């Protein structure tokens, strides 16, 4: 059987090509816009073929669920040099999907009256921003990437830098100061510029209003209520606990295992570890049911009005055409590229993780194949 993409699938593949890189490249339509479900029948043969990694990866896993059908599977090897398969329920570094947990924690604090997303950083952290920041920056702007604070300039996805600094511990306040020292990039609210810095500052705000580590808030407001037992914040621990596939960097001297890394540089923006079953449960709890109030869900999915904006609060909207709309988030760390996406009608949810062989690349062809197989 020929499992290669049809012309229609190839066109959609080209449209989806930047999804893993750009945290799902979304259109800024209103969050409340009605959509007509157009999810196609689940093509399990295409999914099974898609998780067989190409030359860009050593392994991959995917999980599809929803009223239109379910499937899970994996391909490649969990460890180069062995025949051990990738476990479909194994843990992996979720990278920037961490942002969705941080944004959710902020929304839960607002529900409890502990945090106001429309209050300013200057109010909560009066000593953080120097006089050059003449315009107020709200917590909401931190979470929707319209804050205007520059990112740090550490080349953390450059292999040479990574190998030298992979076990270093970073103070998030010091990393924030690297960005703040560059002065404002633009007037808050006038542009949307995706990056980690807003979430590092949001983590500091959460710690200020609660008097506790930001990870405690995520555990108390998200992980425990939703019983996400595979999901955790590693802190300075470089390991991935439990069953997991290893990540690698292909070099001139062979494959270098990059699984172990101290994720404190990424902190509240991209440090977390999870699994496909947990991320499936988490995303569906956000989009459906009583976990969030109606107000919080609306705020979560509201894209700002700044020109060209595509991201809401830790989540983004993607119109795949033909009335098919998904909401989700992607993330990557050296050795890992992954994403979550779901339709609002509950018909289809996708979670995938690919063990890439080159950090900081433009795209993962294996990830693109998985996304295309799940939604085409």
TrEMBL record:
<dbReference type="InterPro" id="IPR012338">
    <property type="entry name" value="Beta-lactam/transpept-like"/>
</dbReference>
<feature type="domain" description="Beta-lactamase-related">
    <location>
        <begin position="48"/>
        <end position="370"/>
    </location>
</feature>
<dbReference type="InterPro" id="IPR001466">
    <property type="entry name" value="Beta-lactam-related"/>
</dbReference>
<protein>
    <submittedName>
        <fullName>D-alanyl-D-alanine carboxypeptidase</fullName>
    </submittedName>
</protein>
<feature type="signal peptide">
    <location>
        <begin position="1"/>
        <end position="33"/>
    </location>
</feature>
<dbReference type="Pfam" id="PF00144">
    <property type="entry name" value="Beta-lactamase"/>
</dbReference>
<keyword id="KW-0732">Signal</keyword>
<keyword id="KW-0121">Carboxypeptidase</keyword>
<keyword id="KW-0645">Protease</keyword>
<dbReference type="GO" id="GO:0004180">
    <property type="term" value="F:carboxypeptidase activity"/>
</dbReference>
<dbReference type="InterPro" id="IPR050491">
    <property type="entry name" value="AmpC-like"/>
</dbReference>
<keyword id="KW-0378">Hydrolase</keyword>
